[in-house]
Amino acid sequence: MRIIEIPMLALQRLFGVHKLAWVFLLPNLLLFAFFAFLPIFLNVFYATSGGDNILLDDRPYVGAQNFNNLVDCSNYLDPNTCREDKFWRAIWNTLWFVTLQVGIMVGFSLLTAIILNRDIRARGFFRSVFFFPVLLSPVVVALIWKWVLQREGILNAFLDSTGIGGINWLVDAEWAFAWTVFLTVWAHMGFYTLILLAGLQAIPRDVYEAATMDRASPWRVFRKITLPLLAPTMLVVLILALIRGVQTFDEVYAFTGGGPGTATTFIIQYIYEEGFAGAPRVWGMAAAASILVAVVLVILTLIQLWVNRRNVDG
Amino acid sequence: MTPKILKTTALTAGVLALAAPAMAQELRFMCSTDGNECEVYEDILTRFEAANPGVDVVVDVVPYQAILENLPVQLAAGNGPDLAKVTDLGGLNEYYLDLAPHVDRGYWEESFGDFLTWYRGGDGDEGIYGLHTQLTITGPFVNATLFEQAGVEMPGDGATWEDWAAAARQVAEATGTPFPMAIDRSGHRVAGPAISYGAALNGPDGPTLSDDGFTAFVEQFVAWHEDGTMARDVWAGQGGATYQDGAQEFINGELVFLYSGSWQIGRMEESVGDFFDWQVVDSPCGPAGACSGVPGGSGIVGFNDTEHPELVAALIDFLADEEVYAEATARTRNLPAHLGVASAGVDYEGVSEGAAGALNGFAAALPDVDPAAFWYQGYAGNRAMFGITVERVSQAIVGELTVDEAVARMEEDLAAAMAESQ
Amino acid sequence: MARVWDFLTATRGGARLHWTDWASYAYLCAGVFLMFFPVLWLIMSSFKTEGDLQRYPPTFLPYQQETLMVEGFDDPLPLFEMTGGDYEGMILAQVRRVGLQAQMVDPTNPGERLRVSIENYRPVDSVTLAWENYTGLFDRFNFLLYFWNSTFITVTATLIMLLTNSMAAFALSKYQFRGRTFVLLLVIGTLMIPQTVVLVPLFLIVSEMGMSNSLWGVIIPGAATPTGVFLLRQYMLTIPDEILDAARMDKASEWKIYWRIMVPLSAPAIAVLAILAIMWRWNDFLWPLIVLTQSENFTLQLALNSFQGELRTEWSSLLAMTVLTLLPIALVFTFLQKYIATGIASTGGK
User: Fold this and answer.
1) How much is the pTM?
2) Would the pLDDT of C342 be above 70?
3) What CATH number matches the domain at A48-313, 1.10.3720.10, 1.10.357.10, 3.30.40.10, 1.10.510.10?
4) Which CATH class is domain C141-306?
5) I need a surface site. Which of B246, B417, C144, C346 has the fewest CB within 10 A?
6) To the nearest whole angstrom, how far is the Cα of C100 from the nearest Cα of chain A?
7) Nearest Cβ partner of A137 from C35, C199, C283?
8) Mutation choice for C interface testing from A6, A9, A20, A31 by most C CBs within 10 A
9) Which residue spans within chain C are E strands per DSSP?
């Protein structure tokens, strides 16, 4: 690492300590600039042009038409009245999904983390068990559960043998949606459990000891001590879970394909199908939808950060 | 510049110069497979390589998704392969290499006839672009053993969809089979029955998915899902425009009648084995009188970005040779699109009597293909129409839309798609 | 036995188990079942033949029908056990089946043909692992080449990502400078855009840079992941500034502070990120699919998916390939998980 150290020292002499921050940031910002910001920037050009051409030079400018088409709706609550009904179905599905999925997942992650934080045997083993599904690729996760849940899968074979009788899980809209939530919780909760566990372990022991002396009930200890001290970690978990929830795509696409009908079609799948998998490829509409989603996400995150800051200050 | 750098540069240049001729003769062939096609072509092309020293054909076997979704993007960015086996025959026409200047037009037109039009951009285009290697036709598979067990007579020649539905329901009831009928989840697959119900597809005002015939079929199809005639798993088990076949249910002996196509024969033979007897029957007829399947398949095309157009043309021409074509067809168990090979008959390799009979049964159905079905397969915008059909009809089946709403949406979607691709 | 029981029910503190302990263990054991069983099921399924995979009800162990060479026949014949009719209880080999009738032969007396109804027999199965699902893969692909490509992409992209992300996180957590909040917001903003929705412009950029069809076209854009910056920054904030100030008093250069102090102290967070990065890059599918079109550059995930044809999917090969791609990452995890465990434990001490 001396190869880096010498030029860095020279730069430090040149800029001083505080400006050196930019040098540390530079490599990452360069990567972001080319492979994250520039594509987003180009997306704006796609969103304001029409046709099915890929090359920007060959695309006619259409102004805000793509955005207008997306929001052309007489009643936003009923997708059937919208011009782009699929977009609004995807939006409502995503909202429902994110609310349920983030709530359930963070709840179970917290429960698991608390249990793993107790004095139990084989803690390392149990921790890796819950983390294990995080390692699987989305396609494999979908494959595994499809294999278990298919009409002739092991779950139905089990239900048949107990006399309850199998259910055609993925053909029924409500069940398919419920299993989609389950599948994403199954695949990702280990990651959040790990972060929360680290947060729990960072809470000093003596705080709890003092509470035990006061004979506070476990529930009171949890509400008055654990939760407040866990708040910064919770914020990271919530932001990440929320963003990842809105971006859910690969697993579900390989799992139900968005069906039955459009019951599990979420917003990223709409964008992907509109711009990539469909025919003709409507890049403009896809780009416009992605920009709308990004704007909503940024606003949501800012609200979350702001609420958090107020809570901390107050 | 120091002498050392100069030397390195010279050396590199020398190596590049040496390597250049070898590199110059490499052809990349992007291929996706439903069985053994890519293997067979790789094997046959070793003969082409032997006849053309210095030429190296590399077959890149990719997932079908790459051909469908990524190849168009790569071609637009100028990064495509030299040739590929494609299914969106007319849709990619702008990137095709015209083989006409390099091949014997007389032989190609005589051998492939109307199949050449599938690859053309539109009326007035006389180019020769692709070699149709995998000709398919849609048609029904029937579980004959279940019919025998139920003691039900199989509907004969000229039977309608309703006759088959009634018979299949009877058989399913008598034998306790869960599903009477299924049609693959694909816009291409339902086009045949829709034509039988009177859909024009290419109407007087251009392509349509909402004329009376098509609506009549959608109504019947949705009703059949509601009364349990059709297996819901196939159409309701997926979303978007994703393809899903009913072969698994059929192979398990849980389905009496499957409307799929000729490409399933190899799989049926392998997986059904001795479990039950299956056979291929004629496409059922509809109220409109037509009893049509839909042809389809894939073919090999060259791209105009290639650095070696003559070589690409020579390679495709080599595969178009009657003898080579017959061999490839026999080994990949496809139907021949080469009229000479077709009239001579194909001697399928290592195929059971039943499967050979099924293949010939499908080949015999080709002359019955309705002109609308032939047009549909060759229409450059057919992918959009397939996708729209699948999405909207699925929504009607699961109850998100009524049949009328679904048909109205199909009309709007198609209009938007046509406007977008102008 | 009693001692085992004592061992199992004793808590670390030595006291007897409280009901909450029972509930905890019950929860954890349910977790083990739920997390592992589906994967185990997948592994067992990967040893089944294409025919066995379609069977219902499915069996846990892979079965194949037994066959036997019978005198006078060129190929081995499948064996059936008679469950009714004239030959009940015998094991016969099937010559051929026509409709509902089967022509059988008794292996001990191959001369005579027997006719039975198919309702009266059941195939004789035995547990057999279909290794051909696996060996077939090695015949079909240049497995080692794909393995090498995947490994090279994963390792290089992970290293680049860890280095750039930790440098950026260091700057964002330990320096006060104008524009810091702005950069932070940019990072979070980048987090919002999934790669899937910018696939097309991203591809155009990468191919303009001449990186399409090369492994670097997968590595470099893959390293631009904001999650790492965000995670590491949150962790580095918890490292006290006094340590840094003490080092500055000793005239340590900023790079040295980063490399010798911040990186080692952030090891647990870096280890978590390393696992995530390895997993992301190893499992990547959509992006390599569009960048890499030539088979000498293919990754394992691309090879895995080449079983998905337009019209049919070969399940037996697909499952076997899935298990093979799963193995290396499971190994990396078992190796790194101890490190994370100690890492988290040590943070807990503070």
Assistant:
1) 0.86
2) no
3) 1.10.3720.10
4) mainly alpha
5) C144
6) 25
7) C283
8) A31
9) 63-65, 67-68, 77-82, 91-98, 101-106, 109-117, 121-123, 125-127
